Amino acid sequence: MINVLFQSITPEVFVGLAFCFGLVVGSFLNVVILRLPQQLYAQWKEQSEEFLRVPQTAQDGPVETILRPPSKCSECGYAIKPWQNIPLLSYLLLRGRCANCSTSISMQYPLVELLTGIMVAVTACYYSGQVGVLYAVFFTLMLIALAGIDVREKLLPDQMTLPLLWVGLIANLNGFFVPLPDAVLGTIAGYLALWSVYWLFKLMTGKEGMGYGDFKLLAALGAWLGWQMLPLVILLSSIVGALMGIFMIIVGGKDRNLQIPFGPFLAAAGWIALIWGDKIMRDYSSAFSLY
Ligand SMILES: [Zn+2]
């Protein structure tokens, strides 16, 4: 029965289903992006107070975790009804405003949902029919959440970068994306590459150019993609990051010391490398090959 069902699914239907799945999970990623950092800050505050033996200050209301409370309007606290929580559609139906107080809803919600839908569909399309499609989708979702958190909070939580790293190594135990030795070397080289840049920059300028979360994220990308892909990831993320920086200085008139998180660029480059890395490398080497 299930076999018959699977055989009747055409590639178009499969990609469509993947897109819808992405929209729904994107909706959940929005919650992770908003609430995980708040949950971590509350934990760190509690631990610091305990360590410093200062009296515990009361939290401002109960800390929101990823699972509760259910979605509500951040302005008026109106509990969002299930039909108002349909990814993308509800945003369009409500014209981007809360049904109760008409405060405009952040563009982050539909953007993350749409982006997740598209990226999951592309990933599923590329890896369709392979066991590793689940790994590839997991990689995609984690990168979207990490990028979102870094944009908002300039933070790449260990709670996400480290599991991403471990799952990458597990996926490559059977060499699904790259052979295990390449993955292990990729992890080490990824961490050390940015660690060295960080220290060089710090010794030369006295400033901190990036955070330890960036090293761990590149280590995780190395675990998934292998060391051979790291130069491409660093190159892509630096180009896009530099363009973005110049754009923001010109358009926004922001000062040069403006901190732009590097994580989103690393995440974007890592995802591009997972899907098109081999093709880019092949085209590049054939373009420059003398043979
Ligand atoms: Zn409201």
Give the SSE map.
Layout: H1 2-7, H2 11-51, H3 89-93, H4 108-126, H5 133-153, H6 158-171, H7 180-205, H8 212-225, H9 230-252, H10 263-288
Helix pairs in contact: 2-4, 2-5, 4-5, 5-6, 5-10, 6-8, 7-8, 8-10, 9-10
The structure holds zinc ion.
Zinc ion (ZN) binds at residues 73, 75-76, 78, 98, 100-101, 103.
Summary?
With 291 residues, the protein is mainly alpha-helical.
The number of helices is 10
* SSE pattern: HHHHHHHHHH
Terminal-residue CA separation = 53 Å
Bound molecules: zinc ion
Mean pLDDT: 88
The 3D shape can be described as globular
Work out the radius of gyration: 21 Å
Can you describe what's shown?
Helix 6 (158-171) packs parallel to helix 8 and helix 7 packs antiparallel against helix 8. With 291 residues, the chain is mostly helical. The radius of gyration is 21 Å and the shape is globular. It contains ten helices and no strands. It folds into two domains: 1-129, no CATH class; 155-291, no CATH class. The mean pLDDT is 88. The chain binds zinc ion. Zinc ion (ZN) binds next to loops.
List keywords for this structure.
single chain, 291 residues, mainly alpha, 2 domains, binds zinc ion
